[in-house]
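Researcher: Next sequence.
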Amino acid sequence: MKTMKLKNVLTACLVLITVGLSAQSLEEGIKMYSYERYQSAKRILEPLAASNPTANFYLGLAEIGLENNAGAKAVFQKYPEDVANTTGIARILFAESKTPEAMSMITKTAAKAKKRDASPIKLSADAITYSEGGDPNAAVEWYKKAIETERNGETYIAMGDAYRKMQGGGGNAMTAYEDAETFPATKAIANYKMGNLWYAAKNYESALVKFNRASELDAANPLPYKALADAYYKVKKYQFSKEKIEKYLELTDKTTDDQIQYANTLFLAKDYPNAINKVNELIAKGEGEKRPYMYRVLGYSQYETKDYVNALQNMDKLFTKQDPKKIIYIDHIYYGKILLADSTTMGRAEDAFNKGIAMDTTGDKNELYREIAEAAFNSENYPVSANWYKTIVASNLPSVQDQDIWWAGYMSFYSNDYATAEKMFTTYNQKDTTHALGVLWLARAKEKTQDIEYKTGLAIPYYNHWLTMVKEDDPSKKKDLIRAYTYLAMVAYTANKKEDTKVFTAKLLTVDPNNDTAKQLEKALESMK
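Model: Next structure:
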């Protein structure tokens, strides 16, 4: 009898332990899903799904995350009467562009909510929020009803995500995330979501604060580290960006997509050689055929390392293998920059730039024009660079910078378009009279346009002004001092002003003792009256 009782106790304990382990495994599987570690989630949840509808539901969501919609549909259909799995089927219907059927299904599911159980409403709203095709306004209304029954952080997070899908919904989304932050279970994810909002608003410093807080609250979640890598890139802290993406990869399932994310951030952090090595490693495993977008970061990185031949080959592969709908405007811009490196493909480069510009939906394209102009300068295509800088200046938008005007003049000068150079430097000096470089280049432009034979002296006031702004013993100004004194000495000589010629010749020899022009002027001084 005692043996039987002991056996029953042991059996009961074993059942409790098993149930406890299953609950822990389910919780871990759900956590892996929330971390977007879909392979880990699938591995944990598959053994539980046969007897647990909740595990089955999250298994289906993991399949969606792995872009296996057919597999997800088969998983959800194993529990056709379960509320959560029904909304999973609705997600598949949304993905299949069967929006009316999906809405009909989740409307019926939402109606199953009870006075103290709003989960059918919340799950139905989730099907809209985390799919494409539904109306996020309807999702928000359902979330509000769910909150009337039970306030919790998960619902506020989802409501914030729904608001983010609306035009101008950022403010309401932030409020929802702030509400979610008050619940311990969602404090970490709420900070991550708020960081995403600040990042989208280009307030990168505030985004960094939130992302760092999220990583402190939940150090095992890889998502804030990826976000930190992106934000540090935006504030030009490239080493921090690289460190965070390495931490991100450490915490992920290290899937091909994870490694591509890693390579992308290496590129953004300007670690081009390692970005190239990582992508080539994945392509060698045959991933290039499955994911042709990998040729994008490869081509971009090879351009940055001046490997233009391979960069062009890999960008051609991108355009050939990638779905045309997934080609982005910056692909054409990079293609154009690569083509600029070869003087025989200049026309094709312009065509590529124009395609990229046409695809860019930004109203103010000056940042894009600036990128093209800088690339042309780096390729020593000065006329092309000048044209793009002039386009920026001609836009007359608030985003035009004084430096754009200076560069338009500088590139025009080196394109032998001295009239435009003079115009640009004149405008620049009107905006900033304290910048010595602007005064010098206006003097040079005046010399080229109005006094190439040293007869008018129209550049004299500008060279003299510049000389008051610099130190004559500054070695970094040697070439410019030689240019200024040469002009002033030659104008004086042409005008037969012996004393002025003598003064500027002496200054020229002080700066450059072996100057040929100065030596010739010294000899000429003897015959001057």
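Model: Confidence is low (pLDDT under 50) at residues 12-21. The chain has 30 helices and no strands.
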